[in-house]
Amino acid sequence: MTRSYALVDCNNFYVSCERLFRPELKRRPVVILSNNDGCVVSRSQEAKKLNIPMATPLFKVEQLLKRHRVEIFSSNYTLYADISSRVMQTLETFSPQVEIYSIDEAFLDLTGLITAEARYDYGQEIRQTVQRHVGIPVCVGIAPTKTLAKLANHGAKTYPATNGVVDLSRPERRDRLLKITPVSEIWGVGKRTLLRLQHMGIHTAWDLSALSIKTARRQFSVVMERTIRELRGEACIDIDAQPAPQQQVICSRSFGEKISAYAPLRETVCEFAARAAEKLRHNRQLARMITVSVRTSAYSAEDPCYANSASGSLPSYSNDSRQIIARATSLLQTVWKDGYRYAKAGVMLSDLSLDSPFQPDLFDDPSCRARNTALMKAMDQINHGGSGSIWLGGQRPQRDWFMNRAHLSPAYTTRWEQLPIVS
Ligand SMILES: [Mg+2]
What average pLDDT does range 138-159 have in this prediction? Predict the structure, then answer.
């Protein structure tokens, strides 16, 4: 059977979250800064038009921001993670198979769910429902493969005439979009690959889809081969083979069998946390924020429904499994409720930073950090050596530590004392 995927991606997600509670900022230029107010990580459409580049350090654009009265926010990951889980919860009602890809994107498997003719309208319904339930604008790309769904989403964002939904089920539409899309926009094509492709005269997505599989495998890798097959409409990227998102590390799965007791749910969440920590080390990154989410199935008529998530900081930027598992456990305790049959859980690590060059904070002991790094490395080697694995137990919960966030918005949705007031 031909597969069908929808990629739902929130528009300017962090900015959209801030605007939810500051509606007067609609149509005004807004930027969000990364951890410790370092770089621009999210821009509103208006800010993009002012040519404020992504990932620029604040000091370089401070004058420009002032001149245009751009509204500045520090990253409020607690807010974003909470809004994200509300978006995901809404998406779960549109497909029994929702795969959270990043904080603001999810793949919905629509295979066998709706007819080809109804797909565009289904996309519109998804958009309108997320807007109505959560207040966040999204775009929807629909296609027979994930790589094409990503491309369709890019088309929906780029061309206003699409009204936010592009369906590439028909090959003519697919080919038309492939021909006008630069190859740099294709999922998984990084900077280094891009240079090599351009050197070979491959500039559009269409050019890439026409590259022979043999050449792709010989000159690049099996990953490139998969990308090309996907561009031609042959689904071959599954959850474990897909390119990692850059701004978060996520481990989220549905369970084979529903879980109704705390101990096995904790074990599962700890395992997800350990896997996420491992991915983080593999990417040579550190994280500051962690979110744990749990939910029952949206498709079971007899079971009561419950979904919740909680976020918290790690004691400092870390990729130490022990710290990440300990925090995941303490967060799980805050969302756990007796009497439900849990169907899915997830661990997301956000507020990421590269592990080198890393600026340690005041409370960091460098010798201790070196020892921990060596320990984690040894652990990864054992766990990938095939001779069994090492399991970590829970630790004492940590308190939140201070960090520099001068422009932080309130935790509108997760702290009683910071609830927005309507007068
Ligand atoms: Mg987005």
Answer: 97
Residues 160 and 276 in one domain: no
Q: Rounded to the nearest whole angstrom, what is the distance from the C-alpha of residue 209 to the centroid of ligand 1? A: 25
How many angstroms separate the alpha carbon of residue 9 from the centre of ligand 1? 5
Determine, yes or no, domain membership for 203. Answer: yes
220 with 259, same domain: the answer is: no
Task: Give the tens place of pLDDT for each residue, 14-59.
Answer: 999 999 999 999 999 999 998 777 889 999 999 999 999 888 889 8
Residue 2 — very low, low, confident or very high, per pLDDT cuts 50/70/90? confident
Dihedrals phi, psi of 117, to nearest 5 degrees: -65, -30
Does one domain contain both 336 and 264?
yes
CA of 42 to the centre of ligand 1 (A): 9
Q: How far is the CA of 133 from the centre of ligand 1 (A)?
A: 18
pLDDT band at 394 (very low <50, low <70, confident <90, very high): very low
Q: Distance between CA atoms of 309 and 329, rounded to whole angstroms? A: 12
Q: Which two tokens stand for residue 186?
A: 């294709």
214 and 271 within one domain: no
Q: The domain that contains 218 carries what CATH number?
A: 1.10.150.20
What pLDDT score was predicted for residue 211? 96
Cα of 32 from ligand 1 centre, angstroms:
13
Phi, psi of 72, deg, nearest 5: -115, 135
Q: How far is the CA of 153 from the centre of ligand 1 (A)?
A: 10
Domain that holds residue 324: 249-355+364-400
Assess if residue 253 is contained within a domain: yes
What average pLDDT does this structure show over 85-92?
Answer: 95
